[in-house]
Amino acid sequence: MIAVNKVPSAKGILTGKIFEYLQANRPIIAIAPTDGDLAEIIQATNSGISIGFDDEVKLKKSILELYNAYKNANLVIDSKGVEQYHRKELTNKLALIIKKNVIPSKAGIQ
Which of 60, 61, 71, 80 is 20 to 30 A away from residue 96, measured at CA? Predict the structure, then answer.
């Protein structure tokens, strides 16, 4: 379970745990804005569910469904595209951005 602080900037918050949980290939429950960046990643990867801060009914239902699936040895997740959020892949993307934007501008400076 991931919980984001209920603050004005909550839509843009990505906790570090999301990347660990994606790699674990286990269902994720996120208490966060359902139209935020965290929810977008969870939906795009089909890795769990995002629940709004005040949706207690949906939270309870989701926990019970996952618990019952676990109890019945039927807890599976069909996530996709998770590898793009692996630390190695994100580091490669960052390196490409740096090479493209920072290094060429310094080439003319000695």
Answer: 80
